[in-house]
C-alpha cells in the first residue's frame, strides 16, 4: 500500500477527521493504475460518532426556517457551477469516465440541488376547515431525523447529490457512505456543501464497505436509508434496514432493452443506441445493454457495428468516446463474460477485448463489443455485464419484443425507436419498466419527477429526488383542533368516538 498519497477523511460533526481504522483501500486511476489516495473502512465507533453528531444537529436543524435552508442550496448550486471543471477532473481521474461525461454526471446532480433550493412548496401540508362543528384538521410534513445514503461507484457526483440535498432541505440530518472505489469527487462536493453553509453535524460522511453499510442498516438512531447499487447488495440493505424499522428505498441493477422497429429513423436510432450502449464504458444503470431488432431492422447490424467500431477508447482526460472500466477486477469480469458469450453460441460481431491504448497499456480498457443471436438463457443476457457490451436479439413483431422485455427480471430503463405514435403508445402502456424512453435512449427523469424502477430494479415505494422523495424524507402528522371562545358552554361529557 502506498504511503505517499493523501488519506481520505471522515466528516463527523463538521470536522474532517482522520480515521483510526487499520483497514484502508487504495483509490486507483483506472486509466493508469496510479494510486490517487487511500480510503479508510471506518470503525464502528466512527459510525456511531457520525450518527450521534447528526442526531444532535437535528435538534436545531429541524427548526431552521425553510428559507434559510433553501438559501444554502442556492449558494451550493452556484459553488458547484463555479467548480465544475475541477470536480470533473477529480471524477475522471478516479472513476475513468470522459471529462465531458463527468460534467454530465455533476450536472445531473446539480439539477437536484437546484430543486432542493425550491423544495418548500412540496413540503406543505393540507387543511380542511369544519371537519366537525368548529373542528379543523391539518397535516404537517415533518422531517424524520437522521437519514443515511449508500452510493455506488458509477455516478460518484450525481447519486450522492440525489440524496443529501433533498434530505437536508426537508429538515433532516444525514450520514453519507460513498462508494469506497471513488469517494474523492464526493468529498469535494461535501466540502462545497459546507462552504455553502450546511451547519456542523447536519451532513456527515463515513467511508467503508459491507460492515459500515450493515452498521447503518442496524443503527437505531437512523430513520431512513436510501441505497443505489447492485440488486444483490440492495436487496440485502432493504431487508436489513426494514427489519430494524427504517424506511428504505433501494434503486438497483438493470438490463435495459431497446426495441428498434423497422419504421424508426435509422440514423438517429443507431446513433442513440450506440451512445447509450457504450458511453461511460457501459457502466450506467441506464445503459442500453440489449437491443431487440424487429423485422427488417435486423438488417441494420453492419451499420451498427460500423458506428461502434468508430468510437474512440482512451483515458477519460483526453475526452475520447469511452474511458476504462473502474477496476482490474471489473475488466476481468467483462472479458470473461464475453468469452462465455462466445462459448454459449452467441455471434461475436465486434470484439473489444483486444483494444490497445498507446501510452496507457495498463489501463482497464475494453472496446465496444457486440453480440448477435443472443438468447435469454445465455450469461451475457441474464447477468448485468456493466461494461461496453451490447446484446442483439431478434423479434418478428412489437408484441414479441415487449414480451422479451417483460420476461426479463429487471425493470430499470427501456426505450423504443419508432416513427409510429401508435406503436410508441402501445409500448408505453404494456412495458413493465420504470423509466420509458420514446426515441430517447437514456430517459433519466429530471428532478421535477422522481427516478423509479420496477421488479428487480427497485425495492421501496418512493423514489429518490422529486416529489416522491419529499414523502420519503418526511412524516405526515395530522392535527385536529378546536378552539373554544369565552361564551362556549361547558356542554356535557361524550363517550362516543364521533367528533361533535
Ligand atoms: P454495489 O452494490 O457493489 O455497491 C453499492 C454500495 O454498496 C457501495 O457503497 C458499496 O460499498 C456497498 N456494498 C458493496 N458490497 C456490499 C455488501 N456485501 N454489503 C453491504 N454493502 C455493500 O454497486 P456498484 O458496483 O458500486 O454499482 C454498480 C451497480 O449499481 C450496478 O448494478 C448498477 O446497475 C447499479 N446502479 C443502479 C442505479 C439505479 O438508479 N437503479 C444507479 C446507479 C447504479
TrEMBL record:
Keywords: NAD, Oxidoreductase. One of its GO terms (molecular function) is methylmalonate-semialdehyde dehydrogenase (acylating, NAD) activity. The gene is mmsA1. NCBIfam families: MMSDH. One of its GO terms (biological process) is thymine catabolic process. Its EC number is 1.2.1.27. The keyword NAD applies. It comes from Chromobacterium violaceum (strain ATCC 12472 / DSM 30191 / JCM 1249 / CCUG 213 / NBRC 12614 / NCIMB 9131 / NCTC 9757 / MK). This is methylmalonate-semialdehyde dehydrogenase (CoA acylating). Residues 16-479 form the Aldehyde dehydrogenase domain. The keyword Ribonucleoprotein does not apply. It is an enzyme of class 1 (oxidoreductase).
Amino acid at each position: 500500500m502506498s504511503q505517499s498519497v493523501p488519506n481520505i477523511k471522515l466528516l463527523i460533526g463538521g470536522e474532517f477527521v482522520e480515521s483510526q481504522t487499520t483497514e484502508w483501500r487504495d483509490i486507483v486511476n483506472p486509466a493508469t493504475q496510479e494510486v490517487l489516495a487511500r480510503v479508510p473502512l471506518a470503525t464502528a465507533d466512527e459510525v456511531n460518532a457520525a450518527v450521534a453528531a447528526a442526531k444532535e444537529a437535528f435538534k436545531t436543524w429541524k427548526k431552521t426556517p425553510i428559507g434559510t435552508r433553501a438559501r444554502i442550496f442556492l449558494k451550493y448550486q452556484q459553488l458547484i457551477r463555479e467548480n465544475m471543471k475541477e470536480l470533473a477532473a477529480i471524477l475522471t481521474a478516479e472513476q475513468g469516465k470522459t471529462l465531458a461525461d463527468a460534467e454530465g454526471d455533476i450536472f445531473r446532480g446539480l439539477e437536484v440541488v437546484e430543486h432542493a433550493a425550491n423544495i418548500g412548496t412540496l413540503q406543505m401540508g393540507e387543511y380542511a376547515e369544519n371537519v366537525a362543528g368548529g373542528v379543523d384538521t391539518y397535516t404537517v410534513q415533518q422531517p424524520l431525523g437522521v437519514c443515511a445514503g449508500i452510493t455506488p461507484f458509477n455516478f460518484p457526483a450525481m447519486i450522492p447529490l440525489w440524496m443529501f440535498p433533498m434530505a437536508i432541505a426537508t429538515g433532516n440530518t444525514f450520514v453519507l457512505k460513498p462508494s469506497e472505489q471513488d469517494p474523492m469527487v464526493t468529498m469535494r462536493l461535501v466540502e462545497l456543501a459546507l462552504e455553502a453553509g450546511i451547519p456542523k453535524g447536519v451532513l456527515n460522511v463515513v467511508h467503508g464497505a459491507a460492515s459500515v453499510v450493515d452498521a447503518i442498516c442496524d443503527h437505531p438512531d437512523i430513520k431512513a436509508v436510501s441505497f443505489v447499487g447492485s440488486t444483490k447488495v440492495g436487496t440485502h440493505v432493504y431487508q436489513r434496514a426494514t427489519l430494524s424499522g427504517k424506511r428504505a428505498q433501494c434503486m438497483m441493477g438493470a438490463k435495459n432493452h431497446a426495441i428498434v422497429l423497422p419504421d424508426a429513423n435509422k440514423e438517429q436510432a443507431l446513433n442513440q443506441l450506440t451512445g447509450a450502449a457504450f458511453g461511460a464504458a457501459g457502466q450506467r444503470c441506464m445503459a442500453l445493454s440489449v437491443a431487440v431488432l424487429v423485422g427488417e431492422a435486423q438488417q441494420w447490424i453492419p451499420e451498427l457495428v460500423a458506428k461502434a467500431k468508430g468510437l474512440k477508447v482512451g483515458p477519460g482526460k483526453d475526452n475520447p468516446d469511452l474511458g476504462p472500466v473502474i477496476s482490474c477486477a471489473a475488466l476481468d469480469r467483462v472479458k470473461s463474460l464475453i468469452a462465455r458469450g462466445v462459448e454459449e453460441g452467441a455471434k461475436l460481431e465486434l470484439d473489444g477485448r483486444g483494444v490497445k491504448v498507446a501510452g496507457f497499456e495498463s489501463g482497464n480498457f475494453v472496446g465496444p463489443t457486440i453480440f448477435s443471436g443472443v438468447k435469454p438463457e445465455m450469461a451475457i443476457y441474464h447477468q448485468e455485464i456493466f461494461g461496453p457490451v451490447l446484446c442483439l436479439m431478434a423479434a418478428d413483431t412489437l408484441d414479441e419484443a415487449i414480451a422479451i422485455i417483460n420476461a426479463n427480471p429487471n425493470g430499470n430503463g427501456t426505450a423504443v425507436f419508432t416513427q409510429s405514435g401508435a406503436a410508441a403508445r402501445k409500448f408505453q402502456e404494456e412495458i413493465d419498466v420504470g423509466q420509458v424512453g420514446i426515441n430517447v435512449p437514456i430517459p433519466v427523469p429530471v428532478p421535477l419527477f422522481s427516478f423509479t424502477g420496477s421488479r428487480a430494479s427497485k425495492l421501496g415505494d418512493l423514489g429518490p429526488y422529486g416529489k416522491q422523495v419529499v414523502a420519503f424524507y418526511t412524516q405526515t402528522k395530522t392535527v385536529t383542533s378546536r378552539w373554544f371562545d369565552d361564551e362556549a358552554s361547558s356542554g356535557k361529557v361524550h363517550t362516543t368516538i364521533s367528533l361533535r
